[in-house]
Amino acid sequence: PSEVTPLPEQVLAEIALEIGLPAGVLNLLNGDGEGIGAPLTNHSGVDKISFTGSNRVGEAVMQAASARTASVSLELGGKSPIIVMEDAEPAQAAEWVMAGIYFNAGQICSATSRLLVHEDIAEALYAALAERMDALTLDDPLAEGTDLGPLTSVKQREAVQRYMDIADQEGLTVVRDGKHRTLPAQGYFLAPTLYRDVPVESRLWKEEIFGPVLCGRSVASEAEAIQLANDSDYGLAATVISGDPERAKRIGRQLKAGSIWYNSEQLVLPETAWGGFKRSGIGRELGPWGLSAYLEVKHVVGAE
């Protein structure tokens, strides 16, 4: 597991032990990438490597695995779009937009951090988002009533803060940021942040931030929304919100992403495939597609 968030996997290992999973089927090794990840990647006894994490590390894993032609599945970064068309209901759309970016303080690879909103509904949506952002409770993530917890480490908070500094330098239009609220004294907190009218050339629009930062941009048409949604190095996920479900599905079919949600939160089901296009990774996890990645096909021919 990640060296900064090891406890969920510890609980998973304890559950595996309790249900009687045979010894050796699941092994939990705690450590950092250099101490644990690199030796495993290079070990001849490891037939299959599946990695979830940053593009920088994932591409290093792929390069190391190529030296011995090991099978690799990678689930890497994302800069996922969420499209809100003019026939959407602003209040409901705002709920889905909030869930897509501020869940887990934006620290999920599928976070829909690029908002493409039709110009006819933009003002109403930004107003609804601002109202909901002001109502968020920032506190201990294990405390009842908490809406937004901290970032995982001081290093991660500093990384996200650097993007906010870039936003200041670029003069981006702020809807909500840290100036609009007081943060808890304990924990690596950053305020939920929303920028609007973000240029497509901005680093905040193009790069994965991995924090509670949403960048919005208005579009004049369905075609423009699709074009901008696909104009990314990544293709992990996307959400489409429309008052017409058939229209939402039609738009979704034109998006280059591994998972598409329409008129919903980000539902991830264990029986469905999970993975991305382009620099978001190689292969799929979950469902029969994920299991097949761990199998080899053997062709046996003979005569009786």
Spell out the blueprint of helices and strands.
Layout: H1 7-18, H2 33-42, E1 48-52, H3 55-66, E2 71-75, E3 81-84, H4 90-102, E4 114-118, H5 122-134, H6 154-170, E5 173-176, E6 193-196, H7 203-206, E7 213-219, H8 222-230, E8 234-235, E9 237-241, H9 245-253, E10 259-262, E11 277-278, E12 281-282, H10 287-292
Parallel strand pairs: 1-2, 3-4, 3-9, 4-7, 6-7, 9-10
Antiparallel strand pairs: 2-12, 5-6, 8-11
Helix pairs in contact: 4-5
Describe this structure in words.
The chain has helices at 7-18, 33-42, 55-66, 90-102, 122-134, 154-170, 203-206, 222-230, 245-253, 287-292; strands at residues 48-52, 71-75, 81-84, 114-118, 173-176, 193-196, 213-219, 234-235, 237-241, 259-262, 277-278, 281-282. Strand 6, helix 7 (203-206) and strand 7 form a beta-alpha-beta unit. The radius of gyration is 21 Å and the shape is globular. The protein folds into two domains: 7-76 and 281-289, no CATH class; 81-262, Aldehyde Dehydrogenase, Chain A, domain 2, CATH 3.40.309.10. The chain is of the alpha/beta class and 304 residues long. The strands form three sheets. Strands 5-6-7-4-3-9-10 form a seven-stranded mixed beta sheet, with helices on both faces. Strands 1-2-12 form a three-stranded mixed beta sheet, with helices on one face. It starts with 6 loop residues before the first helix and ends in a 12-residue tail after the last helix. The longest helix is centred in the middle third of the chain and has 17 residues, at 154-170. The mean pLDDT is 96.
